[in-house]
């Protein structure tokens, strides 16, 4: 159903996952730069030629861009839009959207005022926008930028029916666990490479007097990310692809195995800051900041989430690479998981200005601006690795680029939004209920399957 799925033999799929996991592990233990030189294109008299991408003059044109981004993420993106304004003369307004963004866009379309471009966080949402005839295909200039700067895999997840609709401007490496370096040092804890070693590390931290894990259970997407990393590593990439497309049911034994493994953390109330009830009242930003405030006695020692957690680490006045360190999500099965996510720019009102902005967002120029500001990761392979502001983020970015097409996109983001992307419903709600009662594995599977069947229509 989704373009991210790959029909591979089990051996080939496992080899791909192993290669990607190896790239991640290597990149987080050995610093390496990637010095790419990009030449400037030459344009005509009505073209702006600063940077690597040629843009038209758009004096007097106005655009709206909608996204659910808030805080520093929103402010940093506005700096990218300001550069587009400077180069083209267009005026761009950022429109704050509510989650799920498809519902927000539906009300805008019904009112006859859709934004020109929307940043969609799920391939499933792109497909919905195409099916509803809201989305417009990318033009030749944007496609040329994509082909120049993106691996085939990142191009493909922005396609519907083999037509390009999305520019994946922002990516995420969702296979990371951040930890409070001082707590680990005091406890004598070491970075684990396997799930069993993670449990040992958690017990070591607990014995030192600090709760091992912070979980942002108030937002269901963080819980789906936990499940996906365990499932990908334990069940393997073929099963992962099948479950993502609902070709196998959520009552499959492989899901039972993953939930059983997950319960080894969620089921130990002393391992989760605030217990289940506390976690369910903790949003994602708080789950990060409480790991890095309180000196060497924070509310928790570790927090699982992607590279974008760096924004919140900084807000906690902790220094990435010194106070806050990171290790790859440990291997549960044969290989460590490599799960990615992202946000794609999709045109809703086709115009010269909208196509130009999509082209700009597909270029190294746009991504480099936000990369320098931190808390951001681009799948654009021609962004110089040195643009990222610290060695930790440089390593994370390099691992994403080095994995090429050998990654798995966030499973819940591939699902219909009613199942994989709606607060209080579907997978988000089922896993919140599971966090509250990790012993109810069979009931959780049945609820997941019923909601998935309704959302996928099968």
Under CATH, the homologous superfamily of the largest domain reads: Periplasmic binding protein-like II
Name of the level-1 CATH class of the largest domain = Alpha Beta
- Based on secondary structure, the structural category is alpha/beta
Q: Spans with pLDDT under 50 lasting ≥5 residues?
A: 1-27, 29-49
Question: Can you count the helices?
Answer: 21
What percent strand? Answer: 5-15%
Give the beta-strand count: 14
Distance between the termini: 12 Å
Number of domains: 2
* Overall geometric form: globular
Give me the CATH fold name of the largest domain. D-Maltodextrin-Binding Protein, domain 2
Q: Give the helix proportion (percent range).
A: 40-55%
Biased composition (Polar residues): 39-52
Organism: Streptomyces regalis
Protein name: Sugar ABC transporter substrate-binding protein
Signal peptide: 1-32
Q: What would the keywords be for this entry?
A:
458 residues; D-Maltodextrin-Binding Protein, domain 2; 6-stranded mixed beta sheet; 4-stranded mixed beta sheet; signal; Bact_solute-bd_prot1; Sugar ABC transporter substrate-binding protein
